[in-house]
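Possible regression after last week's pipeline update?

I re-ran a chain I had predicted before the update to compare outputs. Posting the input and the new output here so someone can diff against the archived version. Not blocking, just want to make sure nothing changed silently.
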Amino acid sequence: MIDQIQLDQLCINTIRTLSIDAVQQAQSGHPGTPMGAAPTVYCLWQRFLRYDPKDPEWPNRDRFVLSSGHASALLYSLLYLSGVKATSPSYEQADRLAVSLDDLKNFRQAGSRCTGHPEFGRTSGVETTTGPLGQGVAVSVGMAIAERWLAATYNRPGYELFEHNVYTLCGDGDMMEGISSEAASLAGHLKLANLCWIYDDNNISIEGSTDITFTEDVAARFAAYGWHVVHVNDANDLTLLTHAYETFLDTHDRPTLIIVRSHIGYGSPHKQDRREAHGEALGPEEVRLVKEFFDWDPDLQFYVPEEVSAHFKAQIGTRGATKRAAWEEIFSTYRKQYPDLAKQFDCMQLRGLPENWDSVLPTFPTDPKGIATRESSGTVLNAIAAKMPWLLGGAADLAPSTKTDLKDKFYGNFQAPKQDDNTDGNYGGRNFHFGVREHAMCAIANGMSLSKLRPYAASFFIFTDYCRPAVRLSAMMQIPIIYIWTHDSISLGEDGPTHQPIEHLASLRAMPGMIVLRPADANEVVEAWRVIMQLKDHPVCLVLTRQAVTTLDRTQYAHANGLSRGAYVLADATDHKPEVLLLATGSEVSLCITAYEQLKSEGIKARVVSMPSWELFENQSREYRDTVLPPEIAARVAVEEASTFGWERYTGFDGTILGLRTFGLSAPTKVVEQHFGFESEHVVAAAKAQITRHTLKK
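New output (post-update):
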């Protein structure tokens, strides 16, 4: 009869051997961290994690984030042993495990659910895509924020619908990345007591021992952030690990960092350490040595003792099913007592929209002076927020400039309650102050969205340079983050080249799955928000002006709802047979309208095409695209205060692109525009030159 201590060790060694077998068979991957951290995650999953393997999307489940995504074999082994059910729509076969033994045997191979790094949506039980170090820990802060907000907003006396925790396994690489500092600093400020980072301190990075690069006092650093720090000096000591997790659960005024000292080398440590660092399989001889070290039959591969499967089912399986059933019973009663709140929650879970949400969208009157699109966006945002309680967010210390504050006094600031300063916030607040932390802000927004909230994050467009990795993961995970970027061009003026975005539109347009929207005026902004709110599986970048732009007369020009198709004919020749096409986005559209009117007065037939979203336009039928940009009309001029890169697809190589091939200039807006030739006479001249060129070709 096997005793509890022996059973625990058997389970831990099963996690280890499954992981090294997967890596060995793939001849690729990181075997060391799964071996070193196996006791740490085993103790968490078997003794503490509030998680039902039969329903891995249960809203009140604890989240486990593997920020050390290179150790993915560890997570896949856990998902398999725990019997996590496949629930993602990406699975073609119903009623199967999220990770099967065959998936493990095909680790890192095409078609396997066991990808090289965990991918959200690909494998049920994977809470977020990780791999780029630091992203997972930052995303986990967003998940912890979401739980605090959901609890403050929807819990009622006797109905604790939301009380889950967020656990994140991270390593030395995560700690070195700057995003972890940003995220940890904000988490400490917000006193997120439901957040636990588990730092697998194994002293190894790709170039060798961390002694050559990373010798700071991590515990002191996190204590300075306002975290509670717990030490576990031996990763193999389940008693110490249990005490550490209990300490986290007993800490109610701050997040917790558990520093677990582990060693990733077994068998021949000098070989093992090097192979772990470089993502290499151990090799047959080393695998045998490791298995013998763990008293495992070296001739067995992907072996799972019956006692192990039964023990996982009896622990996390039974505990999770019991807790979920109790929660569902409570929610059933809650639904009867608070039907409106339950309806909101249901809508949120489906990424839906409240009834008549768009009835509040404004219409802006014609105005030659106009307003900045950041201003009109702020108006629309506030109108929608009044109808949609789970639309929330903020800026990286730039809310007054990005116009992203929610104005209603009842919305409040998301802050830790009972602060001694003047923040007077609470965890139910909908205005978020991320500080000058663009990278963490976007990763945190990912975590909030993965918890089914509808977050927005804002900054100046130029600062997408600081947060691109997190924005890229939004697109990869296909989650509907709303990014609001203002100060969109050289027309921001005096702040100069350091703040004037040039290549950023082209960069984001190149990102698969990202929708970029650069509206031309206030009414295109309204239509942009109409499109944005209906997105369920795409993030969007809403790119807005600092300066005022004309609000176009929509009785004279086409309705702004053409924006929903990405590009549309805004102004046309009377006979719909233009001689030249003028293409533009954003503030440059009104410049083309001025040029159009001048050409029209001279008897030259032009068409102005507003192209706020290349991505939406490319999704239209060929027939529609050809009606907007007739192939037979070769005379084309594109106008955009940004890099010319990419416009050739619409102008052809013989077309004219009035754009930027250098960085900007520090000067007043009008001076900058004149310096770079963004004036109507230049558009007129380019149009005439295009007509002449293509007439001569005929």
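Follow-up from reviewer: compared with the archived run. The chain has three domains: 4-324, 357-550, 564-697. Marking as no regression found.
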